[in-house]
Amino acid sequence: xxxxxxxxxxxxxxxxxxxxxxxxxxxxxxxxxxxxxxxxxxxxxxxxxxxxxxxxxxxxxxxxxxxxxxxxxxxxxxxxxxxxxxxxxxxxxxxxxxxxxxxxxxxxxxxxxxxxxxxxxxxxxxxxxxxxxxxxxxxxxxxxxxxxxxxxxxxxxxxxxxxxxxxxxxxxxxxxxxxxxxxxxxxxxxxxxxxxxxxxxxxxxxxxxxxxxxxxxxxxxxxxxxxxxxxxxxxxxxxxxxxxxxxxxxxxxxxxxxxxxxxxxxxxxxxxxxxxxxxxxxxxxxxxxxxxxxxxxxxxxxxxxxxxxxxxxxxxxxxxxxxxxxxxxxxxxxxxxxxxxxxxxxxxxxxxxxxxxxxxxxxx
Amino acid sequence: xxxxxxxxxxxxxxxxxxxxxxxxxxxxxxxxxxxxxxxxxxxxxxxxxxxxxxxxxxxxxxxxxxxxxxxxxxxxxxxxxxxxxxxxxxxxxxxxxxxxxxxxxxxxxxxxxxxxxxxxxxxxxxxxxxxxxxxxxxxxxxxxxxxxxxxxxxxxxxxxxxxxxxxxxxxxxxxxxxxxxxxxxxxxxxxxxxxxxxxxxxxxxxxxxxxxxxxxxxxxxxxxxxxxxxxxxxxxxxxxxxxxxxxxxxxxxxxxxxxxxxxxxxxxxxxxxxxxxxxxxxxxxxxxxxxxxxxxxxxxxxxxxxxxxxxxxxxxxxxxxxxxxxxxxxxxxxxxxxxxxxxxxxxxxxxxxxxxxxxxxxxxxxxxxxxxxxxxx
Lengths: 364, 377
Hints:
Oligomer: heterodimer
Mean pLDDT of chain A: 85
Largest interface: A-B, 27 and 21 residues
Helix content of chain B: 25-40%
Low-confidence stretches of chain B: 62-72
Order of helices and strands of chain B: HEEHEHHEEHHEHHHEEEHEEEHHHHE
Structural class of chain B: alpha/beta
Number of strands of chain B: 13
Distance between the termini of chain A: 45 Å
Number of strands of chain A: 0
Helix content of chain A: over 70%
Strand content of chain A: under 5%
Strand content of chain B: 25-35%
Shape of chain B: globular
Radius of gyration of chain B: 27 Å
Distance between the termini of chain B: 90 Å
């Protein structure tokens, strides 16, 4: 096994395509429909365009400093101290997001299928293989990503194809009837999903051919938007106005669809997608958190970081939210802190870096 | 080194099955009872549930083998009661010693008393429970739901599955508006508590069950019934008529005309801010029955028969609209049709809808095309 600690650009794209829609596809349709109604697709397209612009900034920043992750870039742009401070902020952010993903995982399984099993059981169960993958380093993560991508795409398209006979296009009418303000409100729930591109800044330092990164990332963003658009359209065209009442529209869809009474109850298939993609997502987040911790302070045995971070995540996931209603509220964020961390700071860093480089070039 | 690896692999393989053998929620089939249909009755503030369970042939055969000669049979319908549906559903285990498994439930029958007191409590439980699927037929019984589930259906030993068969074959007559939980929910939300649910009753001639018309729900409460012709009128407007027989009487001779397929188009026009609805129905049909053995069909004959047939279909639709206006309930969903066609105009007239609706002008235009006359000339 050759381990040069790098992944290819394709592997990075496949990871992004799998993990970004994986969690959101389960909940999103309900929260968008609540706000934007039949104009949900405009909200999705707005976020899609925002994501493309966002990835343009990101990839430019990354290309400026090849082989360095975001915290390293911060260090070299703003100096060591501020860099470390930002590193701690981002580590906290990653701890928070990862624990929310972990809670989401347990929450979903607990609410839908395993009604009496405590969430702690699921959390520990999935964290152990995640730690193992992170320990095996990025190259293994990339290969796991390739495999899970195939599982993800096949199962998703299976469910969508089976639900085609139940679709009633009448429920998608009337088009363009909502106020612009409610369409903008519809993007709130999506923004947390678009912001996940942040992991790009950490992972890109491990990518082989960084030259073509812009094009590949934009392509994968387009694929992600298409996946979300197809899933949401299928859900809304079948459930219509009942969509907003559902907690997990996608699993309700899988339970509802049937082809001539032969293929029914596809909800077990959702579990395949859910568990495999959450496994990948958690591993990537855990890897990112470990990398940030390493950038703050280098140590020899990075497994110590991984394990201690995952224990912290486990505790946070159990204690941060006391019940499912409280947890559901973070799925549609209302505080701007996410936007600041995910969008504003990287863009400011990019502008400073560009300015610095220009003055340097002028001096020479 | 190599042998250590193999030993490690084997030991891991042995450990993994321990984790796979089950979890908190493991239940054996013998601890659960699969529920196929539920009847909900209500008196004052008690809920009475009638739960029909599936009994596998083996169990029945085995038990009967033991009790051979005697006439006792395993009971497959069980009655429970409670303060709310959830309570009553759990009390199932007081009677049966098992926990009910609702995920294969196919029909829900609301007794007319329950429907008169309100269906919204029922709908909430059904859509909140994690075992219940949205693909479940909902019916209102003209008697109590208990009596419906107690009676038998011709070709099924399990009444609930039999009722589900009755609804699935609605295409043959189009006299039934079959609705599942999901579409009932959509209908109720779209029209603010107004909905249609198929009605079921006991057929005394066959000693079995019969679908008979449709129940009209307004403000989540059962207020009236419409008959099978009016039900088909509703299906014509919604474009859901698949097949069925149109009875046409021309020059004193009765004709049976089979619907092959139909298409409905609805347009909304506005005149002085008052909506006018134009319904166009195109029907392809075939002549199947003339009460005259020696008849010979000419082209003129077919043409006038087409006109008569269109007139009959138009009357079916009109009777539905008339009923809807009589009971002042927009169960056809004209409000939703107008909203979907023209949301801006709808917002202007939404407040006056109550006064507009009784005066609403609906133009109906039916084109019948008889293109087959069967094997006889």
